[in-house]
Amino acid sequence: MDQKASGRADYAIRDEIEGDAGRLIELFGQLGYPVSEEELSLRLTALRGREDYAIRVAERDGKLIGMIAFHSEKALLQPTCEVRVMALVVAEQERGSGIGGRLLAEAEDWARDRNASYMRLNSGIREERSKAHIFYRSRDYDSGSIGFSKKLRTDFERPSVKSK
């Protein structure tokens, strides 16, 4: 476990573990992805223990104050894998304290251990993400591409069809 000072008190960076979902839902909400504890627990359980995924949390005094989730992807355009950050969030009151940088460094170390060619992440082009963009640029991340997405309805979202 890595101990770092945030300027106010010590915090620890550790792997996400079973039981963290209830303490992570506030952070997911701050990131703009509200989710129930039950649903988040299911998602975390599906990823936990996989060698190609990792989730790290920052914890102080039993409170989760940051989280990063990332995974490796087979690359077609590069000779080695790439690592994609799926989510990075630091509690609003802790932003600017160095926790986000430490979490991102954890993901970069994990990527280096796998000989990854690149770190990749997406960050929305919205005003509320402008500080995040400054944060990433200050850590040598480029915004050299434009991401596109399309929302698809899943079976989970489709209304049930009553049989005749």
From TrEMBL:
- Name the UniProt key words of this record, in alphabetical order: Acyltransferase, Transferase
Where's the N-acetyltransferase domain?
11-164
What InterPro entries does its record include? Acyl_CoA_acyltransferase (IPR016181), Bact_Acetyltransf (IPR050832), GNAT_dom (IPR000182)
Signal peptide start-end: none
User: Which domain of life does this protein belong to?
Assistant: Bacteria
- Protein name (record): N-acetyltransferase domain-containing protein
